[in-house]
Amino acid sequence: MKTRTSIAAASALIAGLLGGAATAQEAATVAFLMPDQASTRYEEHDFPGFEAAMKELCAECTVIYQNANADVSLQQQQVNSVIAQGAKVIVLDPVDSAAAAGLVQMAQSQGIKIIAYDRPIPDVPADYYVSFDNEGIGAAIAQSLVDHLKASGVAAGAGVLQINGSPTDAAAGLIRDGIDSSLDGSEYKTLAEYDTPDWAPPKAQEWTAGQITRFGAEITGIVAANDGTAGGAIAALKAAGVDPVPPVTGNDATIAALQLIIAGDQYNTISKPSEIVARAAAEVAVTFLKSETPEPKTTLYNTPSELFVPAVVTRENIKAEIFDKGIQTAEQICTADYADACAELGITQ
What we know:
Layout: H1 2-26, E1 29-34, H2 41-57, E2 62-67, H3 72-84, E3 87-92, H4 100-109, E4 113-117, E5 128-132, H5 134-151, E6 159-164, H6 170-183, E7 189-195, H7 201-215, E8 219-224, H8 227-239, H9 255-263, E9 268-271, H10 274-289, E10 298-300, E11 303-308, E12 311-314, H11 318-323, H12 330-333, H13 339-344
Helix pairs in contact: 2-10, 5-6, 7-8
Pfam family, one: Peripla_BP_4
GO molecular function: carbohydrate binding
Domain Periplasmic binding protein: 30-292
């Protein structure tokens, strides 16, 4: 009886210690480090989505959010800072995918897990990678434009411009590869191509203005890799008095882009609610905190990964894809300047 009591007491003690260890793991610090403010998505969608998921999955965890504002050195400092603050997992969307290899090595050498987010880190495998399928995004937006040009009767051999993302962003490279796969196999020619530093819309606008001067009416469409660069291109077209504006692609389904699509100024975008990827990153982070290994859905750059498939949005399906699914509301999008166009599409407040 005494032996059984001792065993029971020992078991209870061990269970208590294990429970305390699990709680300590789950109450850890997790960092969410984003790359820039050129796109509004990080403050409007990614971080709020990640924070909400972490509160649900690990209420006692501390979440640190910082944005590097397209500064490689600042992101290095931020990584050092969150490590000093005891972060056990770092969710990292790198400013520079190549430079981030050193950050991965530094963190992993200290037993810290790195989740690459949105932008991959090709040179050194992170512990996990979550994103939408970037190459698929590029292929989809470009093919959508090609199909639209054909349906509109634009003759074979007509020209398009290609505006890529940042040359330091590996995800931009994947999007570019996807765009190439659709354009190279089409009957349309690429007049000129541009890699946009830091995804900066003013740079895309400046470059597009130069191409309008160079090619004029030869430009029958523009494949822009995201909504920011698309907005820059559209601003250049309007400033030059181009009417009608040729179809311009985008990606991210920002509020501004959705309004441009409703108004007929932008042809398409990609609906990829960042909250989906943010939640996946939170789930992976909590799995790591429990000392478990998250199950990969695929592998990219030798990194276990999960890649989500997004939807192409045009004026024809924007109501079904964006408003009927609750991704945005008419109150947010259909402001005074867009109220009539929204009503035309059956989007009402």
